[in-house]
Amino acid sequence: MKKPFISLAFATTVGIGSMLGGFTSKAEAESLSSLKKKQDEVKSQQSNINSSINDANQKISNLQGQQADVQSEMERIDLAIGDTNAKIRDKSAKVDETKAQISKLQDEIKVIQDRIQKRNLLLKDRARNYQENGGMVNYLDVLMGSSSFSDFVDRASAVATIMQADQDILKQAEADKQELEQKQAQVKKDLASLQKLLDDLQTMNNQLSAQRAEKDKLLASLQVQEKQVTEEKMSMQEQAQVLAAQNSAIQKAIKDEQDRQAEQARQAAAAAAAAKSSSGGNSTSSAAAAPSVSAPPISGGAFTRPASGVISSTYGPRWGTFHYGVDFANSGSNVPIVAAADGVVVTSHYSSSYGNVVYIAHSINGQVYTTVYAHMERSLVSNGQSVRKGQQIGIMGNTGESTGQHLHFELYKGPWAYHSAINPAGIVPY
């Protein structure tokens, strides 16, 4: 009775081993084929990112060249503004000097006006005397009343002198009038010329200041563009770093899964053989280490919740943009973050946007997944390290572009690719 039973048990064991071996070989073939395909995809992404980085370098170089041109133009404008301001100061000094001359001229005009007024009064008095005394008749009386030729000559000379004086007064009055008119015209001309000069200089200065303001605005815009392109370049460099680490991490994750499957098959075969060769036995089980009080319980299935806390934001549109993950918020101290599934750490580094971040590659039933854990206070794992589901990989924090302590968790079906995350709902329990 025992021999047939042993033969049957042996046959069963061999059969199970053959089935498991066949399954394993098939799974390995499929995994290797899938891995090669994923590697080709990653290489293509790396090539695209390297091309984008080169484009970004060219854009940065062009923007820096434009900034240099603008700065050179600003220097020219600054020199022109300085020259214009010097001219304005010079002309302003001349304006002050001319105003002083104008003030002096106005005093002279006042003197001329007084002189003309006095002469006019004198001429009026003399005309009144002419009218009252008979004018030229009196001169004839003076001449005819001479007592001798010598007296006549003296009287004629006196009359000529008086008449010449009257004519001189009239001529001087006319000359003063013309001089007054000329000086008044010159004053108006000087004032108009100075005002036009100052207006032209001020207009030029305003135009230069406006050009300077436009150049300031343009330079600021170019600097913002350079900053944006530089940030994009840094993001692409980070992507390139992640992609470069993915191949080995994915290959190791698949190898780990294959090893675990082989071990499970070996253990299953051994258990089946033991069950057939023995009527019973005591089974033992090892208890998992008690998780931290703040860590989430490890759930069944391939994935488990990566952190405890409330869901503060889900996958989908948010604030006019798109949120590519799920946020777990917890205000406690030293809140642990755990691996959502068995896998291999692709990279653990600091990102300007994600802060302290960990990428993990997983191979689950022949399907590659990638998970991302961002904004951690610190990471507890290193590149290439194998991790188990529920193993603590970091501490929740508020690093990078973050607005409060939380875990930003992303899930990718296949290798990580920028902004190609999938909704974790229904795959990762939370």
Concise account of the structure shown:
It contains 3 helices and 11 strands. It has helices at 2-133, 136-144, 149-277; strands at residues 310-313, 316-318, 321-323, 326-329, 336-338, 343-351, 355-364, 367-379, 386-387, 392-396, 406-413. The longest helix has 132 residues, at 2-133.
Mind explaining what this structure looks like?
This protein is an alpha+beta fold and about 425 residues long. About 65% of the residues lie in helices and about 15% in strands. Helix 1 packs antiparallel against helix 3 (about 150-275) and helix 2 (about 135-145) runs antiparallel to helix 3. Residues about 1-25 and about 280-295 have low confidence and may be disordered. It has helices at about 1-135, 135-145, 150-275, and strands spanning about 310-315, 315-320, 320-325, 325-330, 335-340, 345-350, 355-365, 365-380, 385, 390-395, 405-415. A hairpin with a 2-residue loop joins strand 2 and strand 3 (about 320-325). It starts with a helix and ends in a 17-residue tail after the last strand. The strands form two sheets. Strands 1, 4, 5, 6, 7, 8, 9, 10 and 11 form a nine-stranded antiparallel β-sheet that branches. A two-stranded antiparallel sheet has the order 2-3. It is rod-shaped.
